[in-house]
Amino acid sequence: MDKILLSVFLISLLVAISGNLAVFRKATFLIAGVAHSALAGVALSLLLNSFGITIDCFFLAFIISIVFAILASMISKFSDIDTGIAISFALSMSLAVIFLSLIRGMSAKVWSYLFGEILLVTTQDLIYLTFSAIIAIILFGVLYDRLIFFLFDPEGAEASGISSKLLDLILVTIIAISVVSALRSVGAILAYSIFVAPAAIAKEFSRSVKQSLIITFGITIISLLLGISASFVFPVSASALSAFIASALYLASFYIKSKFFTTAS
Amino acid sequence: MAVKAKNLSFSYGKNFALQNLSFEIVRGEFVAVLGPNGAGKTTLLKCILGILKAEGELEVLGCDPRRDRRILKRISYVPQRSSLTLDLPITVEKVLRMYTKELDWEILKELEIEDKMDFLFRELSGGFQQRVLIARALMKKPELLLLDEPFNGVDLVSQEKIVEILESTNITTIMVLHNINPVLHALDRVMLLNKEIIAFGSPKDVFTKENMLKLYKTEIPLIICEEGFIHPLYGDHHG
Question: What is the pLDDT of residue A91?
Fold first, then answer.
């Protein structure tokens, strides 16, 4: 149980940082893109494993996610970010399917990355989550002012000598390590909901970025704990229940905002 | 000299955005760049900043901005409001401190935003958002001020306030515009740009029927206001 609670805490920390970065970068689809790119990494790791070459699947998933996120960012220079992500998403998913079809039988490991299961979190998963949380907190903390400047006013930031390419790369890296390390717990398919919904709710009610981080952290913890608790009652995946609760809270927040927070525009 | 360009060209792939621009802007001048959509106005500002690497000779405040990035410390840039992420819950004070940590209360008072520090930027009207961006740029104490469409979605009162403060400074100012009327009386020179320079001179020399036809490929009526300035009539207000 301690492992589960610790993973809930670490995932909530990562969601608070990465979810907000993705929402404010207006690139929430990047979360889904990164999560599915990671699958290609896991599939490649399994394929190499079948040839006797052992490479850690977290490491490969992370590298491939970064490569595809950068590819999405590069394509977005010529088109929009959504098109960039969609192209790299399709490319990585097709690679994942190709790698998997070269392996005999559908591996349970791929299945676990696809849907996730927070109740089966391992010590190794916790190590990855801790490592990712430390990196994300350091990068976000050190570059906080610059990242906020870049997110708010990318042109002004660039005109002040801030390298927007470098900051975008760092932002993508933070999102990639967060999503990849949480994948075994929340799954590639459900990561989108867990990472985006809490930050999207927080954006509507916050009066500062710091407040948005705290609200996102709180909503993620509540969603995950409620999902885990509900899974003890209903024989359903805790990750799926958590994602469902996060999405339901997002819909509820619309009602609450329209009912109690109506302001003149 | 604030800006000196000779045969300056920039292209996006095979499409020329700017072609062989040669011009000089002296220190302290207030210049407006006018042209239709896609004329290269914003591209020109980005070339002056060195963000876009143009071909040809370019000297900004005695340096080449393509090589010497330190020049950016002496330049302030006011981007189009449409490029900002207004969803970000960020206070006016936080926005103001982005270019410089020290607040200049005189500038804030002049722009009547001194009591707006704790407001969220997104809660302000378009006019006040623009005032905040101008204040942020001025507080940096730049030698060169570049503004991209500062009057888009800005009410008349704020337009007048912005022109008033820009006129009162001695900073070399280059302003990119669609509608020149709000600022026309304060300008030293106007550049008519449509990928190449159509005309560059004082408003009364530049605003001729021929030049406007060349610029917009359609006839733009010109009227003379009470103070004797020639205004192009776009079908909107007369500043």
Answer: 86
